Amino acid sequence: MANPNLRTGSIWGLHRGDQAIARLTVTDVDMPWTHAEVETLPDFEEFRPVFAEQERAVGRCLLHANPGITNHDVPGRQPGC
């Protein structure tokens, strides 16, 4: 059964307690993946390094799990990462 809250165009908020740090607009759902555009809010800056490291880690996992792809196939990856 599909989650009715995970449809294209739905908007999610990312919060730390009562502090809104980002707004996510769902652009595609391909379970188990949900793709969204992220609008960062001013309080997001404190958390930017955490999300940047997660993006690097996901890229490393993709490269490790799929030897046929290169750094250029992974969005946001730089040569030598």
Q: Could you describe the 3D structure shown?
A:
- This protein has 81 residues and is an alpha+beta fold.
- It has one domain.
- 22% of the residues lie in helices and 32% in strands.
- It has one helix and three strands.
- The chain has one helix at 48-65; strands at 11-16, 19-30, 33-40.
- The protein has a three-stranded antiparallel sheet, with no helix packed on it.
- A hairpin with a 2-residue loop joins strand 1 and strand 2 (19-30).
- The longest helix is centred in the last third of the chain and has 18 residues, at 48-65.
- Residues 77-81 have low confidence and may be disordered.
Itemize the secondary structure elements and their pairings.
Elements: E1 11-16, E2 19-30, E3 33-40, H1 48-65
Antiparallel strand pairs: 1-2, 2-3
Condensed summary:
The protein is an alpha+beta fold.
Which features does this protein show?
22% helix; 81 residues; single chain; three-stranded antiparallel sheet; alpha+beta; 1 helix; flat
